[in-house]
Amino acid sequence: MLFRSIYADQWNRPWDILRFSDKGGKPEQVAEVTHGEYAPLALPDGRVLFASAVAGRETLLVASAGKNPVPFVDTEEQTGGPIAMLGSQDVAFRIGKGTEHKEWTIAVASVSDGRILRRLDSARHHSRVYGGAGSPDGKTLYLVSDGTLLAVPVDGGEAGGEPRKLGAADAGSEEHTSELQS
Questions:
Q1: Contacts of 177 (CB under 8 A, 6+ apart)
Q2: Full DSSP string of 42-66
Q3: Is the pLDDT of residue 177 over 50?
Q4: What is the mean pLDDT of the chain?
Q5: What was the pLDDT predicted at 22?
Q6: Contacts of 105 (CB under 8 A, 6+ apart)
Q7: 92-117: b or e for each residue (b if 16 or more CB lie within 10 Å)?
Q8: HSE of 173, CA atoms in CB hemisphere, 13 A
Q9: For residue 108, what are the β-bridge partners?
Q10: Could you give the CA distance from residue 84 to residue 176 in angstroms, rounded to a whole number?
Q11: Torsion region of 114: left, alpha or beta (phi above 0 gives left; psi -120 to 50 gives alpha)
């Protein structure tokens, strides 16, 4: 059965991540989330990646139909949204320690096994990242941070290239970055 869309009911907590079949019928509950402010991400293999809280720590979880969600990345650090696909094989997300988000950075991991491939340390020190979208070729990550839309090169070596300011953005909305994914 092919699934193409997911829906996150964010009006009440806890909220459900539902998946709808192209053929109609009853939606499938993929996960119930008690914490998180970022939209889930449907992965190419049918799993769903989402941010939640586990033991008071931000954690990216991955859920498959009929199975309990499990951590996406094996790390002692906290991981969270926003989440963005980079091409078809990698995913970008926030990673760091403590509650000071300006000390967090962006990590890129393999969709297949959650292995961290690189960190985009050039994206560090942006106090809060509100939205993200990856280019289809996986070479650029677009971020909304501190009211600014940034383009961050992903393949510029271990640390990535320096972010380039593209313009002003509404920091409370992911509209700008979701348009880039189309």
A1: 82, 84, 131, 132, 133, 142, 143, 144, 149
A2: E-TTS-EEEEEEETTEEEEEEE-TT
A3: no
A4: 76
A5: 78
A6: 94, 95, 96, 119, 120, 121, 123, 124
A7: bbbbbeeeebeebbbbbbebeebebe
A8: 7
A9: 92, 118
A10: 13
A11: left
Q: Say how far apart CA 134 and CA 66 lie, in whole Å.
A: 29
Burial (CB count within 10 angstroms: exposed 0-12, middle 13-18, buried 19+), residue 56: exposed
Give 18's DSSP letter: E
Terminal CA-CA length for the chain: 24
Residue-wise pLDDT for 80-99, tens only, equals 887 889 988 999 998 888 77
Q: Could you tell me the two tokens for 57?
A: 């720590």
Token pair for 69: 């969600």
Structure-token pair, residue 138 = 């996986």
Per-residue pLDDT tens for 6-40? 555 555 556 677 777 778 888 877 766 666 667 78
- Cα 17 to Cα 52: distance, rounded to the nearest angstrom: 12
Cβ burial of 146 (10 Å; 0-12, 13-18, 19+) is middle
pLDDT of residue 72: 95
The rounded distance, in Å, linking the Cα atoms of 119 and 142 is 15
pLDDT tens digits along 31-88:
666 666 677 888 888 888 888 877 878 889 998 877 888 999 999 998 988 788 998 8
